[in-house]
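Researcher: Let's do a round of design. I'm pasting the C-alpha cells now; please hold your answer until I've finished.
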C-alpha cells in the first residue's frame, strides 16, 4: 500500500497498532525521527523527497537516520517538494540531489545510497532486478 501522510502520523500509527495496515510505502515521508522509529515495528518503507536536501533539514535527516537502511527509498513523485537548488515542479531527474541529501544525512557516499535505494525499491515494489 502507498500512503501519503501529512500531519496525521499519530493517527496513522494508531491504525498500525490496531493491525489495520498492510505492508506500506510511506510516500514523501514527513514525520519525525521518533515517528519513524515507531513505524519501524511494521513492514514499512520510507521514501524521502526534496526536503532532505534543504540546508536546515534537521527533521528529515533525523527521520532518515532512524530508519533501517533496508527500508530507505528516494522519492520520484513529490511535485511540490523540489530539492535544492531546483525550483518549480519536482521530477525524476532530480533524484540525484535527493540521493545526495540522503547520503549527507547518513554520512554515506551518494553511490552507496543510489545502489541501496534502487535495491530497496526493487524489493518494496516487487520488481525484477534486470
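Researcher: That's everything. Go ahead.
Model: Designed sequence:
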Amino acid at each position: 500500500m502507498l500512503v501519503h501522510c501529512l500531519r496525521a502520523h499519530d493517527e496513522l500509527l494508531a491504525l498500525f497498532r490496531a493491525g489495520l495496515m498492510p505492508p506500506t510505502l510511506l510516500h514523501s515521508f514527513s514525520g519525525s525521527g521518533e515517528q519513524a522509529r515507531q513505524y519501524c515495528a511494521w513492514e514499512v518503507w520510507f521514501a524521502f523527497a526534496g526536503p532532505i536536501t534543504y540546508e536546515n533539514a534537521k527533521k528529515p535527516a533525523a527521520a532518515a537516520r532512524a530508519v533501517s537502511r533496508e527500508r530507505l527509498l528516494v522519492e520520484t513523485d513529490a511535485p511540490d517538494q523540489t530539492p535544492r537548488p531546483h525550483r518549480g515542479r519536482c521530477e525524476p531527474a532530480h533524484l540525484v540531489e535527493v540521493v545526495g541529501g540522503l547520503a549527507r544525512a547518513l554520512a554515506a557516499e551518494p553511490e552507496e545510497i543510489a545502489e541501496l535505494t534502487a535495491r530497496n525499491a526493487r524489493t518494496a515494489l516487487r520488481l525484477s532486478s534486470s
